[in-house]
């Protein structure tokens, strides 16, 4: 029933809407009529050393090429810091809350400038040059933001790695990216667990061995615990960096120079790094965040994403800072050490815009309304979500209970590859439909394609594609442009294919139906099932495995793994052991929810595993298994159902 709710913008009469609906419509028309003119106008949102005169150049066909603002020159750290020093030097740019510390750290734009400059000098002193890659693997502490911006200032390409990756996963990414330096921490706390960042990094660098080009490791000491340091390679971050000069002349970059690379999961086993440009990305971050979250004086934006994800890049760092806002980070968990922890932080720091993943909304919902009602939450003006589908029920709970029906909820759809919001409503301007990511921002031409890859008009369901380039689009996959073309541009010729399915309703609103490839989304974290299967294949006791996504009440999806064990091995595998194997190889976030040791898997006559069936069996959806006659051995299905049921 809640699928049909429509909330009119008049419900938020006091909301500081960005523009009247007619202006939005005019903007849509202008973007359609003259895309280059439109984007060149949007490019004025950021500071250029040389303003661009050209918009888009390139093609979505053949050997895809994408370039924006090619004659423009800029530096991303200037867009985020120096641009604001004349009128906002003393405004807080970054609030960094750390669990267990009495006072949050607050950095004004002037202080952020100073810290970024010192680190820029330090990195250059260590031999980091323009175009070099620097791996950043840090918890949510101010140094993470400083590190990204310092890389940008010297023209180095940052590669932020998630602290939840295993040593194996970090090693693989450090080698693939060719990072020359690493910025990490001694350790961090996650709830009641200690995450030993430095020990994991040491193990990763040891695994990477001679394949790693890392010459220096800067270590932020986050506690008094002793940290082993390798002389000549490891430096105590503050001891080393704080003595450098507090000024650094930014390196002027071409618009197309890469700003960062970010690893994400796809349908093949190897994680891929998508590459984002400086000019297009900065314009895009400023535009998307400016349109949906436009900062007002006094606003505090808290996007709870980890900096290692695209949401952390755009909604924590580049978007809010490009727009001169105040951004907040925290290493806390929504309900630890007690339910309502995040809500207390909202009250304490007077957060006005809260942006999180649907998983966190579901977790807060499970804690109950009383927890929310015991807090004031009167500073909030806007609530947002991204990263995974949110059900109309969870949306309405967020809106009614957390937002007290006063704050619009923006459900924004985007991807690591799109770098910023693609689908999302303008709060106070457009009607909201709980469960729908609304409509495209001006300048984005969305297409729904049918099973033959043909664009369809009007209300329709199919694969979600984008017909024309946008400035923040990923330019390539690092060292594998062929894979870039194949993954994103071969499905619907001349279009970018998102990997998602979607339905467009009669009002032009989009409803995401989920991934169409073998990527699953666990608590907003993308994981390729092939990555899991590749990790398991490395163990000689495993003949074959199949990983599938199953629904999970809080995480959205969880991982289920079916494993065929080799006969007569000396030490047999247990289901727990397999679970540990996966988390050890990929990271804690990939720990399977269920592991089934099975004698065989359902296959077609040609031997292909029928994943569709495994998904249904693992989810307990056994009423509608479909036609089994094409299977090589249909009896296997009953055996698998019995196996799964005995666990449920
Ligand atoms: C999914 C996260 C439904 C989608 C920003 C996409 C969503 C993938 C939404 C990208 C949403 C993202 N509703 N699904 N509002 N936003 N997704 O690269 O499947 O970590 O392809 O970027 O998350 O995940 P990524």
Automatic annotation (TrEMBL):
<dbReference type="InterPro" id="IPR042099">
    <property type="entry name" value="ANL_N_sf"/>
</dbReference>
<dbReference type="Pfam" id="PF00501">
    <property type="entry name" value="AMP-binding"/>
</dbReference>
<dbReference type="GO" id="GO:0019427">
    <property type="term" value="P:acetyl-CoA biosynthetic process from acetate"/>
</dbReference>
<keyword id="KW-0547">Nucleotide-binding</keyword>
<dbReference type="InterPro" id="IPR045851">
    <property type="entry name" value="AMP-bd_C_sf"/>
</dbReference>
<dbReference type="InterPro" id="IPR011904">
    <property type="entry name" value="Ac_CoA_lig"/>
</dbReference>
<dbReference type="InterPro" id="IPR000873">
    <property type="entry name" value="AMP-dep_synth/lig_dom"/>
</dbReference>
<keyword id="KW-0436">Ligase</keyword>
<dbReference type="GO" id="GO:0003987">
    <property type="term" value="F:acetate-CoA ligase activity"/>
</dbReference>
<dbReference type="Pfam" id="PF13193">
    <property type="entry name" value="AMP-binding_C"/>
</dbReference>
<feature type="domain" description="AMP-dependent synthetase/ligase">
    <location>
        <begin position="84"/>
        <end position="469"/>
    </location>
</feature>
<dbReference type="InterPro" id="IPR032387">
    <property type="entry name" value="ACAS_N"/>
</dbReference>
<feature type="domain" description="Acetyl-coenzyme A synthetase N-terminal">
    <location>
        <begin position="25"/>
        <end position="80"/>
    </location>
</feature>
<keyword id="KW-0007">Acetylation</keyword>
<dbReference type="Pfam" id="PF16177">
    <property type="entry name" value="ACAS_N"/>
</dbReference>
<keyword id="KW-0067">ATP-binding</keyword>
<feature type="domain" description="AMP-binding enzyme C-terminal">
    <location>
        <begin position="531"/>
        <end position="608"/>
    </location>
</feature>
<comment type="similarity">
    <text>Belongs to the ATP-dependent AMP-binding enzyme family.</text>
</comment>
<dbReference type="InterPro" id="IPR025110">
    <property type="entry name" value="AMP-bd_C"/>
</dbReference>
<dbReference type="InterPro" id="IPR020845">
    <property type="entry name" value="AMP-binding_CS"/>
</dbReference>
<protein>
    <recommendedName>
        <fullName>Acetate--CoA ligase</fullName>
        <ecNumber>6.2.1.1</ecNumber>
    </recommendedName>
</protein>
<dbReference type="GO" id="GO:0016208">
    <property type="term" value="F:AMP binding"/>
</dbReference>
<dbReference type="GO" id="GO:0005524">
    <property type="term" value="F:ATP binding"/>
</dbReference>
């Amino acid at each position: 029933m809640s699928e049909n709710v429509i909330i009119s913008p008049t419900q938020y009469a006091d909301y500081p809407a960005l523009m009247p609906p007619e202006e939005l419509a005019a903007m849509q028309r202008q973007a359609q009529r003259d895309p280059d003119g439109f984007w060149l106008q949007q490019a004025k949102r950021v500071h250029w050393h040389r303003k661009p005169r050209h918009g888009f150049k390139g093609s979505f066909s053949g050997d895809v090429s994408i370039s924006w603002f090619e004659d423009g020159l800029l530096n991303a750290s200037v867009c985020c810091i120096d641009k604001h020093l004349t009128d906002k030097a003393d405004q807080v740019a970054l609030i960094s809350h750390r669990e267990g510390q009495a006072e949050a750290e607050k950095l004004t734009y002037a202080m952020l400038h100073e810290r970024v400059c010192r680190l820029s000098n330090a990195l250059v002193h260590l031999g980091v040059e323009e175009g070099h890659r620097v791996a950043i693997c840090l918890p949510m502490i101010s140094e993470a933001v400083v590190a990204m911006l310092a890389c940008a200032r010297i023209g180095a390409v940052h590669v932020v790695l998630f602290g939840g990756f295993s040593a194996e996963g970090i090693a693989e990414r450090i080698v693939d990216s060719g990072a020359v330096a690493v910025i990490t921490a001694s350790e961090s706390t996650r709830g009641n667990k200690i995450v030993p960042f430095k020990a994991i990094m040491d193990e990763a660098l040891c695994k990477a061995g001679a394949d790693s080009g890392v010459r220096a490791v800067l270590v932020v000491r986050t506690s008094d615990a002793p940290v082993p340091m390798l002389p000549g390679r490891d430096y105590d971050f503050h001891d080393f960096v704080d003595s450098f000069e507090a000024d650094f002349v930014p390196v002027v970059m071409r618009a197309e120079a890469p700003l960062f690379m970010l690893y994400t999961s796809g349908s093949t086993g190897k994680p891929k790094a998508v590459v984002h440009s400086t000019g297009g990305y900065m314009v895009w971050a400023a535009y998307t965040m400016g349109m949906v979250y436009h900062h007002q004086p006094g606003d505090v934006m808290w996007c709870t994403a980890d900096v290692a994800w695209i949401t952390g890049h755009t909604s924590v760092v580049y978007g809010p800072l490009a727009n001169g806002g105040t951004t907040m980070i925290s290493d806390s968990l929504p309900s630890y050490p007690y339910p309502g922890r995040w809500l207390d932080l909202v009250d304490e720091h007077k957060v006005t815009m809260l942006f999180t993943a649907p998983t966190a909304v579901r977790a807060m919902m499970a804690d109950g309304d009383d927890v929310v009602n015991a807090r004031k939450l009167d500073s909030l003006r806007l609530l947002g979500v991204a990263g995974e589908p949110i059900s109309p029920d969870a949306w309405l709970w967020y809106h009614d209970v957390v937002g007290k029906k006063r704050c619009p909820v923006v459900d924004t759809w985007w991807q690591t590859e799109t770098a910023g919001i693609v689908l999302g409503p303008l709060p106070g301007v457009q009607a909201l439909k709980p469960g729908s990511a609304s409509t495209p921002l001006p300048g984005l031409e969305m297409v729904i394609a049918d099973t033959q890859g043909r664009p369809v008009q009007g209300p329709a369901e199919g694969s979600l594609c984008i017909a024309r380039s946008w400035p923040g689009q990923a330019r390539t996959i690092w060292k594998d442009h062929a894979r870039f073309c194949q993954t994103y541009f071969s499905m619907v010729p001349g279009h970018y294919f998102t990997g998602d399915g979607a339905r467009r309703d009669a009002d032009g609103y989009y409803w995401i139906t989920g991934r169409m490839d073998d990527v699953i989304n666990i608590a907003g974290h993308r994981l390729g099932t092939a990555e899991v299967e590749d990790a398991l294949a490395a163990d000689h006791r495993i003949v074959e495995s199949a990983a599938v996504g199953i629904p999970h009440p809080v995480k959205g999806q969880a991982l289920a793994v079916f494993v065929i064990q080799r006969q007569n091995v000396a030490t047999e595998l247990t289901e727990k052991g397999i679970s540990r194997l996966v988390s050890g190889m990929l990271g804690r976030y990939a720990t399977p929810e269920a592991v089934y040791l099975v004698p065989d898997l359902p296959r077609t006559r040609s031997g292909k595993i029928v994943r569709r069936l495994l998904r249904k069996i693992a989810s307990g959806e056994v009423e509608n298994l479909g036609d089994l006659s094409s299977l090589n051995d249909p009896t296997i299905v009953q055996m698998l159902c019995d196996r799964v049921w005995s666990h449920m």
